[in-house]
Structures are given as C-alpha cells and as structure tokens.
Amino acid sequence: MRMKCYSKFFVGILSLGLLAGCSNDELTGNEPGSEWDGSTKDAVYMNVAIQLPVAGGSTRSETGENGGSSDGTEVGKDYENEVKSVLLVLADKENEFIAYGVQEGIVDAIASGKVSTTQKISKSTLATYYNNGEKTLTPDECKIYVYAFCNPTPDLKNIIEGVANNSGEFGKTNWYNAVGSVIETPSSGQDHAVWGGTEHKQGFLMSTANATKALKQIPANLSDWDSYTSVDKAFNLSGMNNAGSDKEVNNNGAIPVERAVARFDFRDGSDDDNTYVVIKSKAESEGATEKTVMKIQLQKMALVNMSKAFYYLRRVSDNGLAANAQICGTETDDNYVVDTDADVKFDNSIIASNNYDEYFNFCLGHVKDNTWAIDVDARKQWYTSKISDVLGTDKESDNWNDKKYKIWRYVTENTIPGEDIQKNGISTGVIFKGKMIAGDDANDSLTEALENATGNSATDPILYLYSNNLYVTWKEVRAAAILAGTTSEFYKAVFGTPNNTPVAEKEAAGNDAKVDAEYSDDTTSPDYLWNEWQIKDNGNTEKQSAFKAAATSSKFTIYQSSQETGEEPGYYCYYFYWNRHNNNGNNGVMGAMEFGVVRNNVYKLAVTKIDRLGHPRITENDPDPLDPDDPDEKGDVYLTLSVEVLPWTVRVNNIEF
C-alpha cells in the first residue's frame, strides 16, 4: 500500500511581463504619473502564477504511474525554495520561440508564500506573431507554451537573449534543447549558480516541470491587447481569460517548476558510530552467541561520475533517447528521463573510447595510455568527504520518518537509456572507505596486525581473505589449507596440483624439532610463486605481481596496510554503491531507470548493513576488480544502502554491503 504524506508548500505568484527583442524606449503605456502617461500605448501587461515543488515512507523507492516517488516528498529548506528572479519564455505549440522576459529582484513575499510583480512586454514584439496585426490567430494558434525558469543562471539568460537576437548556438526552433553545464574538481569548490552558489543562498535554478500545465491561451487579435495596457489591467496568463471550456489549456492554474539539480543526504545507519560487524566466529555450541572477529568503520564517502551537462528543460521518452522526447513530460513507472549524453551512452562509445572526463566530473577511474584503472590518481579525482564532517554539519535535512539525515551535497542529473547499459563507468555512485577494526574474538595475530599497523605495506603483515575466512600472513594460509586436506577446494587454490607434498612450517616446541616449510612445485600455484617472491627473491616486484595474479585468480583477496594524509595507518577497504533511482526489488535484475540521478529528487543514503569485507585499496589485490563495463547490479551484494529521494521528491535507499 502506498503511503502519502502531505505538508505545507511554497507557492510563488508572479505577475510577469515579457521583454523580448526591444529596448526600454519601446515600452510605453498609460501608467498614471509615469513618464509615458498619455503615450502611444505600445506596452501590454501580463501576469502568471508559478508554483514551486510541493511536499506530499517506505524503503523501496519507485516512480508512480503519474510521477513522484513512493517514498513521498520533502518541502526542503527555505533557501532551496526561494525565488529571486524569473525568466519567462513564450513559444508556440511547436515550441518555436516567440518572446522572453526577465524579472529581477523579487522581494514582495507575503505570509502565504506568494510573490507578486508586474512587467511590460512590447506590443510590437507580439505583433510579429500576429503578422503585424493582419492575422487573426486560429484557436490552436492562440494556445502557446509559457515556460518559466526561476533564478535563471547567467548562462541561461545569455542563451535566451541570443535566441531572441537570432545569434548564438540555439535558434528559435531549437532553443528548448539548450544545455547547462557544471564543471567541478575536488579542489575547485561548489560555486555553481544552478544550486545558488557555494552557500546556496542565491536561488536554485528551477524550470517548468509539466508542459501540459504550461499551455496557456492568448487573444486571437493583436488589437485585443489594447485592453491590457496598464498595471491594474494585466492579462492574466494564469486566469480563465477567454479559454472557455477548452480542457487542453491550463485555465486558472499555476505553472509548476522543479529544481534543475538533485540532492544527496546521509545519515549513520549503524548501531555504533558508522561501525559494522563483518566477521563473526562460529558459535561454540547450538544456541551460543557468535562473537565479533572484525568490524568495519566507515570513515569517508566519495561522489563519482557526476554529469557535466544537463538539459535546462527536462524531457522524457519511451526508450531514454532524445528522438521523439516530450519536453517537460512527466516521468512515470515505464518511461525514461532523457540525458544530454543519451546517444553516446546507448552506443557504449564513452566506455569504448575511455573518454569519461569529457562527460563526467569525479570520474571513477583514471585513464593513462588508454588504460582504465582505479589507482591513486583515480582516488584523487573523486569528490571525497569525511563522514564525520558530513554528519557534523548544521545542514540537517527535513526530518524524515524520525531519521536525522544531513545534507551532503547537490548533484546534476545523470540518466541512462535502456536497462542493460546501466554500467559502473557511466553511473553516478558513492564510494565508502572503511577501516578494519579487531573484534573481541579476533586472534592474537589479527589483533596485533590491525592495532599495530604502521601504514608501510612493504613491512606490515599482509591479510588474505578466502571464502570469508581471514588469514594473517601466507604462513597461516598454507597451514589452514594443509589442514583442510588435499581434496578440498581451498588446498587446490593454494597449492594447485603439485607433484610433491607441501609441508607447513613449524617452530620447535618441547621435544618436537623445527619443521621447515616445503612449498608446492606447481609453478602456476600461488604457493610456488609466493616462495619465489618472498623467500628466494624478497622484494622483486615482478615476482610479487606474478604471485598476486595467481592468488587473485584463485579467489584470494589481498589487503595491505596504508596511510593517507590526515588519516591513521591501518587496513582499509572500499564499498561501491551505484545510486538507485527506481528500485525494482529484484536484486540481480535491472529495471528501467533503476540506477541514475534525476533532478528535483533527494536521495537519502544510509548504510544499514555490511556483512563482508570490501574491495582492497590496490586493484591487483582484488579478485573481482571493478570494470567500467560492469553492470550496476550483480547477483552478489556487498553493502546495504538506504536511499530516500524527495518536493523535493524523496527516494530512500538502504544500502547493504
């Protein structure tokens, strides 16, 4: 059953005129006391109502049949709702540009949340649409679209001015395909006009959300505008006017707008300071309590693959491609929001060409010599935050189901056409970095390794994970494999198919003499190659790589200590989460628009469960390294994430690793 929550909303009523292709000396009217009093009445007046996103949970976020999210909505912060300026664009039913206007400095807010202003538009400009007054518009021609942009960015205003003056990239028949951009590096800061600047106080860019509600009706004759040449007799684009009973026109209705960006929120989903039990010892007897061997504390989170480009006006289509897309169409449970890069995502050319940085900020992988890798340089590309800083901020989001989320940051829209091409290299994701912590039931060697790590991977012990069992040093691995027996898969993974009988090393004890190790003679086995690297030629990097390749091929995960600037030395691992927009509830099978970021959505993230160690820091230590061509959803699950997206439309995602 779908639950809906309704709360107060912010409504902006803006009485707007339009300035298009004319100078101020063309704008004349009969305003009493004005310098134009008694002039030729070349100015006419219009007003229009604009409605901001309004607020309306569950743990599965789905897009409803008529749009919105099953998780509900969120009002948002005052600064996310403010309207400081408005750009209106008038276009015919084929979306061909007619005129535009900008109103700055909207300050007349009243208790009801309404803002009122009135402006002029040159009657001469309108005359072009009426063939200089010689044409009576047909009923269909009287219907025009009025697109509203709240807090328009300087780039958008320049684009529309260029359209009006027949200059620039976008012409009068193509203006609605105008694209905005957000270019950011980890060190450049978030000073972007689309989300109101660094402090988010300058107004968020918003645009018309529903084209059917933007369809208005204007008079059939140019002379009819003579009745609207004063402030107190403005033509009401949001009123009944002369539309009569025409159901196609949005009579007496506001134009809904939505923010052009999305938001990521985060909360601590653990029981104790972002710390999760990942390895437990087996119960000693039936009914006995399992004890903790290892915990993971999440310490950092990083945004990857944030789109550089977005459409100023959202559009949808049945397959996610731009052809036949509906401008300002409603997202439903069986269509796609169209991305500016839909075609190159669809044909896989971004991944094939390794040109991720052309399309994304904070690319997941680093490309060198046309080779993609997650390495030190890749991690420098990510937008990384300390989780303690995120949770310590005073930017708390609206209280959501008694869970206190903190606002992390704003992001641009990123959608992918089709189901099978939702892949790691082109999907927006969040990477969590966790530190390994010894549990109460960890053995002495593991406790010592974790607590006394220096961060020097060449001298600190190496940890080996096999089948969810963790070993400290290769000596422990060999001894456990021999104990498992020659017919076990574990034995074969370590020793291969040797002609000799490997022997575990033992120290002298009591009357028992020391036993020297005998290594596998299978030259392809990890055991043989470890001996070549560590015993016969300690420090040879080529032999080290050969051993790691053999070990990871046998499904060993290798963890080495490290220390980055500003953090403690220790053993760390990574968890990768691809942002969910729609959750089809079927792990391992992707649905339409399941992974992506859509404007005006709040994605509320919380890691609620981690039941295994994550990916190692060094790619060659990973038996299952990420590849940009990997699908976003696999049968195996590393992490449990909670995401809520909210008007803002909310989507809640609980993340499990």
- The residue ranges in which pLDDT falls below 50 over 5 or more consecutive positions are 1-40, 54-60, 108-114, 637-646
Reported for the largest beta sheet, the result is: 10 strands, mixed
What radius of gyration results from the CA coordinates? 31 Å
- Percent in helix: 10-25%
Q: In the CATH hierarchy, what is the class of the largest domain?
A: Mainly Beta
What is the mean predicted local confidence, pLDDT? Answer: 85
Per DSSP E runs of 2 or more residues, the count of β-strands stands at 33
Shape: elongated
- CATH topology-level name of the largest domain: Immunoglobulin-like
Distance between the termini: 28 Å
Domain module count: 3
Strand proportion: 15-25%
Query: What would you call the structural class?
Result: alpha+beta
Number of helices: 12
CATH architecture name of the largest domain: Sandwich
